Amino acid sequence: MKIRPFILAFASALLFSCSxxxxxxxxVDPFIGTDFNGHTSxxxxxxxxLVQAGPQTGIHTWxxxxxxxxxDTLLLGFSQTRLSGTGCADLGDIxxxxxxxxxxxDYASHFDKSSEFAEPGYYTAxxxxxxxxxxxxxxxxxxxxxxxxxxxxxxxxxxxNSVTGGRKVTFAEVSCPDASTxxxxxxxxxxxxxxxxxxxQFDSPIxxxxxxxxxxxxxxxxxxSFEDNGKPLMMKIALSSVxxxxxxxxxxxxxxxxxxxxARSAAVASWQEVLSxxxxxxxxxxxxxxxxxxxxxxxxxxNIADVDGQYRGADDKIHQAASGKHYSTLxxxxxxxxxxxxxxxxxxxFGGELAVSMIEQAREQGFLPIWALxxxxxxxxxxxxxxxxVVEAALRGLPGVDADEAxxxxxxxxxQPHRKSDWELYDRYGYLPxxxxxxxxxxxxxxxxxxxxxxxxxxxxxxxxEDALFFRKRSQYYRNVYDPSTRLARxxxxxxxxxxxxxPFSYQxxxxxxxxxxxxxxxxxxxVLQDVPGLIEIxxxxxxxxxxxxxxxxxxxxxSVTGYVPDVSGLIGQYAHGNEPSHHVAYLYAxxxxxxxxxxxxxxxxxxxxxxQPDGLCGNEDCGQMSAWYVFSALGFxxxxxxxxxxxxxxxxxxxxxxxxxxxxxxxxxxxxLSETAKYVGKITLNGVQVSAPSITLSELLEGGELVFEMxxx
Length: 714
Known about the structure:
Layout: H1 5-17, E1 54-56, E2 74-75, E3 77-79, E4 95-99, E5 109-110, E6 117-119, E7 122-127, E8 132-138, E9 142-149, E10 154-159, E11 168-178, E12 181-189, E13 193-202, E14 206-212, E15 221-226, E16 233-240, H2 244-254, H3 260-275, E17 278-281, H4 284-297, E18 302-303, E19 310-312, E20 318-320, E21 327-328, H5 332-335, H6 339-346, H7 348-365, E22 372-373, E23 376-377, H8 386-396, H9 403-415, H10 423-429, H11 434-437, H12 441-462, H13 465-475, E24 482-483, E25 488-489, H14 521-524, H15 532-538, H16 542-554, E26 571-572, E27 575-576, H17 588-591, H18 595-609, H19 625-635, E28 637-638, E29 646-649, E30 656-660, E31 666-672, E32 680-686, E33 689-690, E34 695-697, H20 698-702, E35 705-712
Parallel strand pairs: 31-35
Antiparallel strand pairs: 1-3, 2-5, 4-10, 6-7, 7-8, 8-9, 9-16, 10-15, 11-12, 12-13, 13-16, 14-15, 17-30, 18-21, 19-20, 22-23, 24-25, 26-27, 28-29, 29-34, 30-31, 32-33, 32-35
Helix pairs in contact: 4-19, 6-7, 7-8, 8-9, 8-12, 9-12, 12-13
């Protein structure tokens, strides 16, 4: 019998009401971002869990980076891992599919979209051809399934070869320790070369098993059949980066029994604990957008360490995590901008553990992670933006972070050669010449300059004067690629000549050549997070700077446009909110004395590109960064310089919020008079005292109190 959505909604509401108090999880809609190119998934997971078990509706193409797309009505099965909102595909491990009829060759099934329901830590759908309702909940390393069959048989299909993005399984070994358990180890050659082990356990013994293998596949396919006793079939799958024994220990520690509702309640409670850091005021729609954004921010990074703290490191050796946790899935090119500053501000224990994990990976591979997946380096994107995260953690004294050790790996990462470094060229020319360095020369020069600035901050604090001067000098290399004739960042060769012909609207990325990364010079010219006053100065002062910045939001492509980059989305003129290098740009107006323009841009972005619908994200979620921009901007301030202790004022988009700051302080943020037309900030007060600066410090926020924005019409 199918369970209709109104019954599921009632059960969910009952769960919330029985617990007492406001249930922040009730406002989360996991389907936001699952359409267009948000690349999120509605699967079941807990904060930072290694397992994110959920529906797999696609394997190949860029649309299926998370393995799911909202508009699909055909389910391939349910996989146990996925990437949240990335622009590359991988994971989607251990595809399983229940079915109630006889054994066949194709186990995909259409599903009734009205039967599909998700909340934090829970997912369900009914499969029409297979005549099964599937329910999933999760713990950090373990997924728990409940299959309710409508037909005469209880069968489960398992495919270890199915990996998102068409990645290749290179090794698979599976054993059956007893009649209801499987254990195995799988190696995958994908975005990284990774290895995982698993234990799969059923609450009924397997009465028969069919196994077959295709000629070009390393892993076999299996169908398990169970006695038809008229009851739902329960299944657990636990993962480990270390061993099958580790997976078994994870399973025993996290979900030792077969109580589905108990496990589901624990998963929901873990999300409620995270989301309750903020009591948001506003309409149900406003709360849905805000709390879903907060939910997305804490799905990843993922803790890949077992319950005993062991993990498989970048050197493919087994290590013991200093904090007991080791985080990977580090989309640092994206998250350093806002997600990581939010973690360190609101959840400093996690922020410290995350920085320590980066330092541990640096010990294993010789430099801080650039983009880490399952503990392995994939070298994706440019710069090394673990540097600002580690520097911020050291400057703030986050738990477990040793400042001297942090500086040691920061310096090593920015001076010692590795696969993505060009230090000799960088220092010889004061920029990366496009004729010698290859593609992305300008984007890399600008991004690396911010890392250098961060290194200088930590060197100065620790008293390394010579190093500080070296990195400060490097951080000013952006001036060497600024073309005063166009007032844009422009490619330059080793002779000092500007790139000709110059195509300012041409979209470029590493696979297409050119001087920029997933964008053009209009997006990258503003990428001087470390020295906004200096950028204003070389552009001719505040008035000229604002005029040029205005052009960004109104220029539309002309005949010079070439190339197509799917990441460049959420366009307002040449401003691309769907890609992270643009995220700080609206706040540059405030630093140039035009906070009214900051308010206008933020309102337009929020209204157009953050909604409560499946297509409610205008670009890849990118492991929390797209949502972090919204959370900060909705509150009224943003970390333009993420490693510093300052946040630039914007304009709130919600009536208010009470933030539970670390240490027990309460910060009350209020936007008095906020309306559709009253979107400008007339005055800001902190505890009754007017604030005249364009920014506020972290220490002021952590002290709590009342931050009031007086909103006005223009």
